[in-house]
């Protein structure tokens, strides 16, 4: 079932749920459970006090986290819907559209978040750790390649998304034909690369090139997971049968899990890996019952603003909650005020930035396609 603007309804509404899960994880869990990290990112002192009930509700199981669970759903949705936007576009046009879909909204959202952090540093009298190199590399989403710190807690997922876009663009000829074998060739190559890089002698571990290569190879673990969503796209477009879908998904999950266990992030294996499996279970159930999804104003609104909401909630939310509590508000009141502000800003960015720039990217793509057709006719 699709919406009027050709969005797949179940995937679109799941996107809103995923954004909400990550927000709850960060505000209820990370804010209290990772106090030093929150202090670092918001240029504020480490806050004290006992953990509220909200923290206990999201942290009762140390082997499960709403944050990774929500991110896993985001990744699967990308794996499913991104090939749809590739269907009628050349790889170059696809990348142009993704640029305008991601970067303008990201730049505005991150700038607002950093403005709040600057205000926090002035309020608390704390120094900022940024410099020009860190800020520019984060704006371009290449800070990981330069071994520089991030400036928030969410933009790392955008860096994974960009790598997925590049992989999809490279595989576009085979994806459009519904081919499966090249996808597994890629995943096996990622597994071998991670195994080789993490088997080098310890004397090389301090080498910067090896460190970057290991980090980059480990990031393709998430690309492997996104490719699980690609098989759902194949089944959705009837390029493979449901029985083949089950087989291919299980095989891809096996490669994904083996790669994670042999990568530089293997300390998170198997706990976080299993959370991604749980995310797949929810996504698969939504896919199976996709015809049951119906239009709902509130859910659709959350889905519409999910991208700027996701980008804004950590920095803006943490700053507002902490300053609000310093004025004597309870955590819950400060959180509600933060939710109101973040929601309003996210809606404004969606209407004033995300929608126009997304449309602009599509317009450029259509113009390039038209010119190419004219050139071929001449």
Largest sheet: none
Structural class: mainly alpha
How would you spell out the order of helices and strands?
HHHHHHHHHHHHHHH
Q: How many DSSP H or I helices?
A: 15
Q: Name the poorly predicted regions.
A: none
* C-alpha geometry: globular
CA radius of gyration is 21 Å
Residues in helix, %: over 70%
- N- to C-terminal distance: 40 Å
Describe this structure in words.
There is one protein chain. This protein has 378 residues and is mostly helical. The protein has one domain (9-377). 75% of the residues lie in helices and 0% in strands. The chain is built from 15 helices and no strands. The chain has helices at residues 9-33, 35-42, 53-59, 66-86, 91-124, 132-139, 155-170, 172-176, 181-197, 208-236, 242-261, 271-288, 297-304, 306-326, 331-377. The chain is globular, with a radius of gyration of 21 Å. The model has no long low-confidence stretch (mean pLDDT 93).
Spell out the key features of this protein:
15 helices; mainly alpha; 378 residues
Quick summary of this structure?
The protein has 378 residues and is mostly helical.
């Amino acid at each position: 079932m699709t919406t009027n603007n050709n969005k797949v309804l179940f995937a679109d509404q799941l996107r809103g749920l995923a954004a909400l899960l990550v927000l709850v994880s960060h505000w209820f869990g990370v804010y209290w459970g990772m106090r030093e990290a929150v202090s670092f990112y918001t240029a504020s002192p480490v806050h004290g006090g006992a953990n509220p009930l909200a923290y206990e509700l999201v942290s009762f199981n140390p082997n499960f986290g709403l944050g990774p669970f929500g991110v896993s759903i985001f990744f699967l949705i990308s794996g499913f819907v991104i090939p749809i936007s590739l269907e009628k576009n050349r790889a170059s046009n696809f990348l142009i559209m993704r640029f305008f879909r991601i970067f303008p909204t990201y730049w505005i959202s991150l700038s607002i978040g950093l403005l709040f952090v600057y205000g926090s540093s002035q309020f608390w009298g704390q120094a900022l750790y940024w410099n020009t190199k860190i800020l520019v590399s984060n704006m371009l989403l290449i800070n990981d390649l330069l071994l520089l710190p991030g400036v928030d807690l969410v933009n790392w997922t955008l860096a994974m998304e960009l790598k997925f876009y590049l992989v999809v663009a490279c595989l576009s000829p085979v994806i459009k034909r519904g081919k499966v074998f090249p996808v597994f060739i890629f995943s096996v190559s990622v597994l071998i690369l991670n195994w080789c890089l993490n088997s080098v002698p310890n004397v090389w571990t301090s080498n910067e090139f090896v460190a970057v290569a290991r980090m980059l190879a480990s990031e393709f673990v998430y690309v492997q997971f996104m490719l699980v969503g690609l098989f759902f796209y194949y089944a959705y477009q009837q390029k493979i049968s449901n029985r083949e879908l089950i087989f291919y998904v299980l095989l891809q999950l096996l490669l994904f899990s083996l790669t994670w266990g042999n990568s530089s992030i293997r300390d998170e294996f198997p706990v976080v890996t299993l959370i991604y499996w749980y995310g797949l279970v929810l996504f698969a159930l939504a896919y199976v019952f996709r015809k049951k999804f119906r239009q709902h104003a509130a859910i659709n609104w959350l889905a519409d603003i999910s991208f700027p909401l996701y980008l804004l909630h950590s920095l803006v939310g943490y700053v507002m909650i902490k300053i609000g509590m310093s004025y004597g508000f309870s955590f819950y009141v400060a959180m509600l005020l933060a939710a109101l502000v973040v929601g309003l800003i996210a809606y404004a960015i969606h209407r004033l930035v995300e929608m126009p720039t997304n449309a602009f990217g599509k317009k450029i793509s259509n113009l390039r396609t038209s010119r190419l057709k004219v050139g071929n006719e001449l």
